[in-house]
Amino acid sequence: MTLPSILAFTGLCVLLALTPGPDTFLVLRYSLVRVRAGVAASMGSAIGSLVWAAAVAFGLAALLEQSAEAYRVVKIIGGLYLLYLGVSAFLASRRAGTEGAEPAVPRARIHSSLLAGMISTMLNPKVGLFFLAVAPQFIPANGASIGNTMLLGAIDALVALAYLAIVSVIAARAVVWLRRPRVTKVLERVSATILAVLGIGTIVSSAE
């Protein structure tokens, strides 16, 4: 692959990263409580992108493109997972508010944040279809398709990680700066609601 191709693909990844999606709101949700939880979710999302890149490289993701039913199943599962994350986060926030405690992601469970980010991205078939549609345009005809696809996947993962980590740090510092329980609670509930709405929207659109 040539340097101009790599730079062009990197620019495309930056543009896509700047478009708010489920991963952005998921990272925001965890970052509102603890910056390391948000960064962990960012890393999980990046790992999920690498998994999709590997699936495309080895031809597994092509099944989603060829089978509308497989695409619909993955999309529904992803929607249900987002709905679960949103509802559980909202209920946790309400319980904490009732008990007078700070709504929070358990401090000892940073790995759960990473897992949530990874699963959310892996259950988003649009990521796989993005690689299927875009990767071939940047891979030379006589090049090693598997190696080049994984290289593109690594670039996309690094761009996503950098952007989401920045979002995480900014969100966490904003909460520290405000440090008002009522504001924090509202922001947490809004982000949880957005996750739930995205999940419902995903499920509804998959039935069309």
From TrEMBL:
Single Gene Ontology MF annotation: amino acid transmembrane transporter activity
Compartment(s) of residence: Cell membrane
Annotated TM spans: 6-28, 40-64, 70-93, 114-139, 151-178, 190-207
Coarse class of the protein's main subcellular location: membrane
A GO CC annotation given for this chain: plasma membrane
Membrane topology (UniProt): Multi-pass membrane protein
Entry keyword set: Cell membrane, Membrane, Transmembrane, Transmembrane helix
Alphabetized Pfam families for the sequence: LysE
Protein name: LysE family translocator
Organism: Leifsonia tongyongensis
